[in-house]
Amino acid sequence: MAVSLYLCALCDTVCWAFDPVRLYQEKIAFISVSIMAYTRKIAVNTRLLLKDKMDGIGYFTYETLMRIVRRNPDIEFHFLFDRPYDPMFVFGDNVVPVVLFPPSRHPFLWYWWFDWSVAGYLNKNKFDLFLSPDGYCSLRSSTPTVAVMHDIAYEHYPDYVPWMTMKYYKYFMPRFAKHAKRIATVSEYSKADIVKYYGVSPDKIDVVYSAAKDNFEPATTEERDAIRTKYSDGKPYLIFVGSIHPRKNLKNMLLAFDAHRKTRPDSVLKFIVAGAFGWQNSELKSIIDNMQYKADVIFLGRQPLDELARLIAGAFALLYLSVFEGFGVPPLEAMRSRVPAITSPISSLPEISGDGALYADPLNPTAIGDAITSLWDSPSLRKDLIGKGAVRARRFTWDRTATLLWDCCLKALGPIQPSPKGKA
To answer: Within a 13 Å sphere around the CA of 294, how many CA atoms are in the beta-carbon half?
Structure first.
């Protein structure tokens, strides 16, 4: 019978709760899990698998786990959620979905969830491995752990992180790095950063990279024209995608756009911003108010994945001049869509974008504006970048990332130990 598991906050025991809504959907899967003899048992932190609300790490979790689960039907995976989950995230009959209280979206609740709820579940069940795709660990459990630490941007830009969150990171992240049996990360840059700041051996860290989602693909001329008609009065546009946060450096992209339009009166480019406002944006709002071409800046807010793919495919170019990235997926999304990207020559971005992007100093709006103008003035440069970008993007796939992450897990798991003589 289909059930959900909850860790009871009162008695600190795992309690079974019948879920009639999922009874029919999960009945067969539950029976299959119950009767099959599995070779290994792995617990996975899946708290960021949220339907229609996934961010970059959520998509990383989704794309890699879907492949890992389906490639390993002989392994039982316990997916640990912090709230009711969508059945779309139960990727196979070998997945046992578990809900552990409380929902964890605050430093205090992170501590509660990982060091009490998750630790309690891990310690009461014999798991061969705990995989945490967001890098958080359970320090009160001795279960071998693989932590995916995507980046440590907060070490470089502490002022861009809320005070309580920063206190949590500074205290726990070094401990997570030392506690994990192995660490996976998404670039050689991030690997070197983790070694430098947390003093772990580079031999303990595997680079697994990331990838753009399959939704991103080129638009036909008709599709491109339709997208531009819908969003930019039929005019070509630049696009930025991502959270509107100081580290993303939108302020200098806006200043660069204004500078380009001032120096090129013939330019009809508009600038679409597809992302939700974060915090510390008072300076950004002041810049917008003082722009000469602010009427040509279009704020769309956070967009569904399919619509975001259409928006990028319809763009003249992507602007992604972040001051720090552990990987930087949007330039790859543009490259897959046959759209040139202007990005930063710092942190991991050159490692990922290679010769498939145009680079500009993210702290210099004039340099960014000049890069925009060079694309506007030179169709041959734009065509060359599109060709190189398409080749570059093919190097990064979710199949490759899932394989590399599973290889990292296998190193932590070690060989299967034979059963003692005389025992099943």
So the answer is: 10
